[in-house]
Amino acid sequence: MMRKKLPGQQRTTFRLTEIEKLDGRYPGVAFHVKGWLDQGIPSAEIVGLIHGTFHLPVTEAMVENYRYKRWVPEKELVAIKIAVTKAAIEAFGGDAGLDAAILAKLWELMDKMSIPQLISARTLFIKVRAQNLKEQEFLYKTGQLKPGNGEEIDRETQQRNVLRRVKEIFGLADDDPPAAVVTTPVPPRGPAPPVSRGEPATAPLLK
After folding, report:
1. Which of 32, 45, 169, 201 is the one with CA 20 to 30 A from 84?
2. Which domain holds residue 103?
3. How would you label 88-113 residue by residue, b for 16+ Cβ within 10 Å and e otherwise?
4. Do 83 and 155 have their domain in common?
5. Residue 117 class from Cβ within 10 Å (0-12 exposed, 13-18 middle, 19+ buried)?
6. Quick check: is 97 in a domain?
7. Whole-angstrom distance, CA of residue 115 vs CA of residue 95
8. Average pLDDT of the chain, as a whole number
9. d(CA 175, CA 9)
10. Taking a C-beta distance cutoff of 8 angstroms, is the pair 121, 182 a contact?
11. Could you give the count of Cα atoms lying within 13 Å of 69 in the half-sphere of its Cβ?
């Protein structure tokens, strides 16, 4: 599968903070620090909690470094992912367009993307929604579409098409061809062909 580059894609150097380095020798340190930060506990108090729990001499500067280099970016990343998810749901018709499996795949794809890529994807989802609304408005005005009279597409086909669109927006090639709406073929006019014993007969076409 070939993946296109979205705007903002670049290599970044990942460096462990001092708290994460301690976590390598004392498993659970980073997990606890993250939890304490989530609870809104000040860094100065976390220093005492680390000492009381792990008996490690850490400084407030080490906790603050972890806060701004790891905890804050992760919180921002989650917030952006939520915004992208909301934009995707709005672009594809709410719950009717995205089921749990599609949402799980969406988050799986976002885990591999940088913040600039996620922002670009959100912008594209917003454009898709705007385009869909314009098309619907045009169809309503021209009488081609009426409330409650839209074409019914089976759920599986709908989800496959949505997943294909999501992959396109994320710059991913789709392994599967787009799912088409399956329609029942109309038999030709005229008498029905002879049917052998044991085969179901085809009802004559009404003229």
Report:
1. 32
2. 77-182
3. bbbbbeeeebbeeebeebbeebbeeb
4. yes
5. buried
6. yes
7. 25
8. 75
9. 23
10. no
11. 15
CB-CB neighbours of 62 under 10 Å: 21
Indicate if 160 and 82 belong to the same structural domain.
yes
pLDDT band at 197 (very low <50, low <70, confident <90, very high): very low
Cα dihedral: 148, 151, 154, 157 (round 10)? -130
Q: State which of 53-62, 136-145, 164-173 shows the largest mean pLDDT.
A: 53-62
Q: Are 76 and 118 in contact (CB under 8 A)?
A: no
C-alpha span between 49 and 35 (Å, rounded):
12
Which pair of structure tokens corresponds to residue 179?
């799912």
Mean of the pLDDT values across residues 60-68? 96
Q: Does pTM top 0.70 for this prediction? A: no
pLDDT digits (tens, 9 = 90+) for 113-156: 888 889 988 898 888 888 877 877 777 777 766 655 555 555 56
> Helix (H, G, I), strand (E, B), or coil: what is residue 58?
coil
